[in-house]
C-alpha cells in the first residue's frame, strides 16, 4: 500500500531543494552539475556517485539542456513522473519569471557587467572545483581511469565541437569494457526507475512525432502560436552541448525573421547570463518579447518539452542496462570520462571567463575553502560571492 503522506513529503522536499537550486545555481550547465552534486549527492545522498555520473553521461548523449535533464532525472527517480515535473518547475521557474518580467518591464537595461555577476561567476569556480575533486576521488581511483580522465579532458579541450563529448564517452565506454569487463563493482546502488518501458516508448515516439508533425501543422494552419512552438521545440530537440549552443541558434531563428530586434535579443542575452538556472530559459524572454507573458510560457514549454520526453523515454531502459553485469566495465570507463569532461568545462569556459586577476583567484580559493573545509552551505557561498564581487568591482 502506498503511503500518500510519505509521497507528498517527498514531492514537497523535491520542490524545496530544486527551488533552492533554481534560485542559487549560477554559472551555466557545468556549474549546475556542481550544485546538483553538492545538494543531491553530498548532502542528501539521493544517488551514489556512480549513479550520478552515469546519469550525467546519459544526459550528455541527449540533445537539450543537460543540467535540466539531470535534475528531471533525479526528480523522477525519487518521486516518479510528478517528481520530475516538480523538480523541473522548481529549478526552472525562478529564471523564467525573472526573464519574463525583464522582457515586459526592463527592456534595455544592461546587467551583464555588474560586479555581483562577476562574483557569482567566481562562486561557480569554487562549486565546480569542489564537485570535481569529490567525483575524481570516487570514479578515477586507479592509474588506468586517471589516464581516461586525462584523455577525455584533452580531447574535449582541443577538439571543441558538439560531437566531442559524445565521442569521448563512446571511446571511454569501449576502453572500460575491454579493461574492466571481468571486474565486479560491488558498490553500485540498485534502484527501480518508477517509469514503465511502455511510457518510455510512448515518450520517445511522441518526441519524434512532434518533430515531424509540428512543421506540417505550421504550414497547414498558419498560426503564429504553432509557428512559435515549432521553432522553440526544434531548437530544444536538435541542440547538443547545452545552453551556450542554443543561444546563437535562437538568434538565427528569430532575429533575421524580425520576430525580435537585435538590440532586444542582446539585452535578453545579457539578462540570461545574470539569472540562475538553465540558459534555455532565454526562450521565455524571447517569447515574452514576441507575445507577452503567454508567449514566454509557451516558449518555455516548447523548448523544454523535448528534454522531458527524452529523459522519460530513456530512463527505464538506462536502469536495465546499468544492471547488466557485462556493462559494469563500460560504465567504469564512462564515469572516468565524465570527470575529464567536467574538468575541461571547468577550465573553459568557467575558469577562463571568471578569473581575470590574481585577486579573483584568491577569492575563489576562499570560497572553495568555505565550501570544502568549513562545510558552509551553498546559499551562504552565493551570498558571499555577490558581496565580494560587488566590492571587487569598486576596487
Uncertain segments of ≥5 residues (pLDDT<50)? Answer: none
The biggest beta sheet reads: none
SSE succession: HHHHHHHHHHHHHHH
Radius of gyration: 21 Å
- Alpha carbon gap, first and last residue: 62 Å
Shape: globular
Structural class from helices and strands?
mainly alpha
Q: Fraction of residues in helices?
A: over 70%
Counted by DSSP, the helix tally is 15
Could you say how many structural domains there are in total?
Answer: 1
- Report the portion of residues in β strands: under 5%
Assembly state (oligomeric)? single chain
The overall pLDDT average reads: 83
Question: In total, how many beta strands?
Answer: 0
Transmembrane segments: 14-36, 81-104, 116-136, 148-179, 199-220, 232-250, 293-318, 330-350, 362-392
Protein name: Chromate efflux transporter
Organism: Ureibacillus galli
Keywords: Cell membrane, Membrane, Transmembrane, Transmembrane helix
Give the tags:
Chromate_transpt; transmembrane helix; membrane; Chr_Tranpt_l_chain; 395 residues; mainly alpha
Textual characterization of the structure:
With 395 residues, the protein is mainly alpha-helical. The chain has one domain. The protein is built from 15 helices and no strands. The chain has helices spanning 4-24, 29-43, 49-61, 66-106, 115-139, 143-158, 164-180, 197-221, 224-238, 243-254, 262-274, 282-323, 328-354, 358-372, 378-394. Helix 5 crosses helix 15 (378-394). The longest helix has 42 residues, at 282-323. It is globular, with a radius of gyration of 21 Å. It starts with a helix and ends with a helix. The mean pLDDT is 83.
